[in-house]
Amino acid sequence: MSVVAIGVDIIETERIKKAILHWGEHFLFRIFTPAEVAYCRAKEQSHYSFAARFAVKEAVIKAIGTGLSSNVRWTSIEIVNDRKGKAEVRLGERVKEVIGNKKILISMSHTHQYAIGEAILLEAEE
Hints:
Elements: E1 3-12, H1 13-23, H2 25-31, H3 34-41, H4 46-64, E2 77-81, E3 87-91, H5 93-99, E4 103-110, E5 114-122
Antiparallel strand pairs: 1-5, 2-3, 4-5
Helix pairs in contact: 1-4, 3-4
């Protein structure tokens, strides 16, 4: 597999905490799927998990190169965890149309102050 593009984003966790406090459900469900909201809310300091997911969604958008256009929505990019807890990206149909037969790998992390996300867009194996 060869790398087509990468995307990276970093955000202050406090910024996401303030957005949640200010905009509440409107913010959460504009950016995150119901499953993501449920996952993050189960955490004691949920804004850290929300921030990490926000950052990796931004990174995915940067890697695919469309921005929030071409009918790509925040909720078209869902961050899920496999059975071992590894974060993976689940893409909506419109995003799949945009990237074609490519694959996206992601990684994310956070501290108390920052969250970071990285996405790598890979050419499909032949």
